Known about the structure:
About 0% of the residues lie in helices and about 50% in strands. The protein is an all-beta fold. The N and C termini lie far apart (about 40 Å).
Amino acid sequence: QVQLVESGGGLVQPGGSLKxxxxxxxxxxxxxxxxxxxxxxxxxRVFVARMSALGATTNYADSVKGRFTISRDNxxxxxxxxxxxxxxxxTAVYYCAGLMNxxxxxxxxxxxxxxxxxx
Length: 119
């Protein structure tokens, strides 16, 4: 079993930055793809970014390209999401996810961390 714990959320002004962290425990972290998703208020959860097991491949939603950066430190069993130039529409609960299958489905999810972008 894998446990994922997000941290780093909070309130930030438009144009500001935040860095989310997701610490994993359990199975070999370095062997699977990690992703970030978000769920805005009253909306469905959507894909934000993902990174392959060894970090060679990254993918981003169009809405965050050029502003968000996913990274991982396999020695620390942690994946990060650096968020710059934040906009009010980035307000959401952010979730990390682990162990993506060939269908793009994830086996493990964190509990989420709230990010609010507001002046």
